[in-house]
Amino acid sequence: MKVLFLGSSKFSKIVLEKVLESKHDVCGVITQPPREAGRGHKISKTCVHEFAEQKGLQVYTFEKLSRSFDEIKKIDYDIALVASFGQILTQEFLDNRPCINVHPSLLPKYRGATPIQSAILNGDDKTGVTIMKVVKEVDAGDIIIQEQTPLSKEIMFSEVENQLAELGGNLAVQALDLFQNGQQKFIPQDNNKVVLVRQLTKEDGYLDFSKNAKEIFDRFRALSECLGTYILLGEQKIKVTEMEIVDLCGKPKEILINKKRFVIACADKAIEIKKCQALSGKIVDANSFLNGWHGDLNEVR
């Protein structure tokens, strides 16, 4: 089939790689336009844009699909495949050709922008990928294929994202095969089981040591790599980049060890901060951080 691919993120790139390895023909790629990124505000292309160009694919960067539909209609494709694109698709676009989406959750659970983070935050023991028909309502379309996979209690967001992108790419190819052979089936979602998830902000990265160790560690796993996680020490917000659970007890938020090791009590056990951001902005190990800290080290806020 001639596939028009829409995607912008690392997740999207992995899905696109899988489709390119298949018998299907990617006839064009739509991705978000280049934007300012990083401290230097350098204009950068999406990773999908760069990868597609390397593969010699036709790339389109429309600021708004709704304003570019006349150009899109000229593209010769059989089906649109969407994976973490970043724009709302218009009804006009959806009516033009079949359109399917790769969503990294077991729909109808976790409709919305943060399904992977939400599964980790909630301590789920399984997750998965759904290939669904795209409709106007967010992530509400009929299910075409769905497959679940175990969700480890230890691995970080980026590893889960990679695993689900690999699975999503394979399932997307299976779905394209079904469409090519006229064997696609559509299973309506159970609206009684819908779980909606919101866009997360930097404030969600706050590690609240009045909670239990698993809740804190799950928040760290879910958000430290994408949004950043932090503790409040005095008036300072300290970014945390490595931690582990330890079998110590104390009053929640109390700093139990502040010499060479940095250990903070929570509701049940304790968390050892292994690496965090010094006041200089540099990420350092716990011992270096403690040596450079000149305020109180009794408790976190």
Write the layout of secondary structure elements.
Blueprint: E1 2-7, H1 10-20, E2 25-30, E3 35-37, E4 42-44, H2 47-54, E5 59-60, H3 69-73, E6 79-83, H4 91-96, E7 99-103, E8 109-112, H5 115-121, E9 126-133, E10 143-150, H6 157-180, E11 195-197, H7 213-223, E12 229-233, E13 236-246, E14 255-257, E15 262-265, E16 270-277, E17 283-285, H8 286-292
Parallel strand pairs: 1-2, 1-6, 2-5, 6-7, 8-11
Antiparallel strand pairs: 3-4, 7-9, 9-10, 12-13, 13-16, 14-15, 15-16, 16-17
Helix pairs in contact: 1-6, 5-7
Brief sketch in words of this structure:
This protein has 301 residues and is α/β, with parallel strands linked by helices. The chain is built from 8 helices and 17 strands. The model has no long low-confidence stretch (mean pLDDT 96).
Q: How many β strands by DSSP?
A: 17
Q: Give the strand line-up of the largest sheet.
A: 5-2-1-6-7-9-10
- The coarse silhouette is elongated
Query: What is the chains' assembly state?
Result: single chain
